[in-house]
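Input/output pair, single chain:
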Amino acid sequence: MATPTKGRGAGSQSKPGRALSLIVIIMVALVGGMFLSGTFTPRLGIDLAGGTSITLEAKNEPGRPNAINKTNMDTAADIINRRVNGMGVSEAEVQTQGNNNIIVNIPRGTNQKQAREQVGTTAQLYFRPVLTVAAGAPAGNATASPSPSASSGDKVTDKATDKATDKATDKASATPSATATSQGRAVTDALKADASPSASSSAKADDKASPTPSSSAPPSADPATAALQKKFTELDCTDKAARTKVNEGAKPEDSIIACGKDSQGQWEKYVLGASEVNGKDVKKAQAVINQQSGAWVVNMDFTGGGSKKFAATTSKLKDQQSPMNQFAIVLDGDVVSAPSVSSTLSANAEISGSFTQESAQDLANVLSYGALPLTFHEQSVTTVTAALGGEQLHAGLIAGAIGLALVIIYLVVYYRGLSVIALASLVASGILTYTLMTLLGPAIGFALNLPAVCGAIVAIGITADSFIVFFERIRDEVREGRSVRPAVERAWPRARRTILVSDFVSFLAAAVLYIVTVGKVQGFAFTLGLTTLLDVVVVFLFTKPLMTILARKKFFSGGSKWSGLDPKRLGAQPPLRRRSTRRSTASAAGPVDPKEA
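Output:
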């Protein structure tokens, strides 16, 4: 039975150089990828690189006394986490603290300003009809000439029919010479027209569309209209606090006042009607470059219900006079864009205007991941230094170096020549681990934190354990009287099964840990799982082929006392099978009579 086994082993390992060549090619490719990407060190997490820690506090809203609860807080934390990840930021920690706080830790190396805007933006999106528009800055701060409309040149395009219209500039009444009285009258007229859309095409509506500065605002019987008129007249869009408070407590079905900037950065204020379409009706949003204009735009796909609402809204607006043929896209109370409509639009729309790549991607990001269920404000923003993490990393690396040194000493003393194979395998595993961690940073946003470093240190033990299993199987075969070459081939199948089962258990534990945990613990689980897979690759493509090649050398095959496979040192007995067989036969025949002999 020994001869066929040896033949199969020799045949299966007749060309171990192929496996070694394959892993060398893999390592060269990974190192080449590092040079091509220009990245030579792994990306570090916030505990090692420092960064920004933002504390968000949930605010009570009128009419929602019980809105701040665990469900809404967890939902908000999940949305913020997906927003930050959508920016390509890895290792960002988003977690709730107490009953009304969310802590967001963003590592250094990212756009901190952009990240702060993303995490703090509620992203409550509404599509509202424009009733009237005027200059948003006080007359004393305005320029001498009329400023363009809030989104001059903005348009909304129906991607299915490819129809679009440019927004008309109708701001004669919003020049610095316009008085507060004329603005108030414009609000009253706009609200009346909004309440009776058919009146917009009548002669009465035409007469109301041209208020004179000397006209006085007629007394309004509707307190809500009067209050809105007063807000519109007094609002200064350059005052951030005023912009924030102007619509406190307003509902989607209420008319509101909102501010927005035009393409030249000038503030404008709007009176907007009730919302019929909101952000929940947007199925998907994506920032792209318009092929015709070359400008950045945001493409939106509506849901089934949102498509019907959007079609109904644009159908009403297409026959109105400017600016009432426009609808404003309002994000967290600010007008992002106010395009005009000339036809009924379908389920897909395109928001264009004075977008940069960053602003278009930010808008698409918040639209895609939805609005926060609560309103937050920044309670504190602190800078996290890497000093503490650096000290802990230094201590961890020292501990890892000590552990690695002890493993090397153990391998050299106990396995002698075999330790060369083990050390070479550890070096190969280290190269693969380092290059992969470096390349995974720009590829998937992987960042190395302290728990991940711990996972890499633990992997040293896992890898060394695989070598020990293989070496001990070989030694068992040598103890049974086999020479080194057949011992290697006979030991490999049993060692392979043990190694695979052990690594599978480790990988399963890492996968479960990654799934059920959050934050930094996931870094430990990811690194442990990655290094476990690399252990299988190294043992199969490097350790076993290298052992097969060295077993052919006289140093190992001859059983040198420094090889770690010395038969005498291992207590192996010569395979005296014939003598043993004869003795067994004689014992079975019984004692021999001397006379007969």
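The longest helix spans residues 484-516. The mean pLDDT is 75.
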